[in-house]
Amino acid sequence: MIEIRNLKKSFGQLKVLQGMDASFEKGQVVAIIGPNASGKTTLIKCILGMVLPDAGDVLLNNERVNGEVAYKQHIGYMPQIGRYPDNMKMGQLFEMMKDIRVHNRPAVLDEELIRRFRLSAMYQKPMSTLSGGTRQKVSAALAFLFDPPVLILDEPTAGLDPLSAEILKHKIIAAREAGKLVLITSHIMSEIEEMADAILYIFEGKVKFLKTVTDIKSEYGDEKLGKAIANYILQEMNNG
Ligand SMILES: Nc1ncnc2c1ncn2[C@@H]1O[C@H](COP(=O)(O)OP(=O)(O)OP(=O)(O)O)[C@@H](O)[C@H]1O
């Protein structure tokens, strides 16, 4: 469904993506993991066309989408930190997003997260006055709003209270069941274990592996995903 081929991106002297290849099929939750500053968000932004790669291709359903605009309507994106116009009220933001989309193409709306997070009770609040967690809820609700076949969620549960995190995890699993492709980044192994079918591990600008959770556990000898990945990293350090 989504494929990246030989993706490269530098910021000045800093080589962040150094030739990455991977492909992701629908009906999967894939967790992108790696150390801080290893390039997870940069990879996501290249897939979204928000960062232009220096080399390589991004393909959606076998078609190159580098730099195009139209394919973005197939992807719901939840950024790590959502930035919204300060003076706009939350209700206005949702209405504006719906207007833009419906104007372009009739859309199926999925307002489940607006309901479950009880966001409409806060529609009169200016975006600048919202708490960090509430902002996250708005970002999540917007990502799912147009029922896209692909969701890209950058640390989706960071800053959410436990109940809200459960609601979002449930939504992510339901999206997978509905045949969508979900790419998430997270540093919380227990959470990845609950949701992910496969792990893309990136390190120093390269894809170290893209494997199913089941294979990782059996290959790296632990029932717990976090320990299995730690075993892999230690093994690599000893080999290197
Ligand atoms: N626009 C930019 N200009 C310059 N450097 C950038 C830019 N965007 C990212 N970087 C750098 O690229 C590297 C990778 O950043 P990125 O945000 O992709 O990491 P990450 O793996 O998502 O990190 P984290 O786990 O901390 O969220 C970092 O060193 C970052 O400072």
TrEMBL record:
User: Which keywords label this protein?
Assistant: ATP-binding, Nucleotide-binding, Transport
Q: Which GO terms describe its molecular function?
A: ATP binding
The protein, known as: ABC transporter ATP-binding protein
List the PANTHER family: ABC TRANSPORTER ATP-BINDING PROTEIN ALBC-RELATED (PTHR42939)
Signal peptide residues on this chain, from the entry's feature table: none
Q: Known InterPro entries for this protein?
A: AAA+_ATPase, ABC_transporter-like_ATP-bd, ABC_Transporter_VariousFunc, P-loop_NTPase
Outline the extent of the ABC transporter domain: 2-229
Which is a Pfam family this sequence falls into?
A: ABC_tran
Q: Which domain of life is it from?
A: Bacteria
**Which species is listed as the source?**
Chitinophaga defluvii
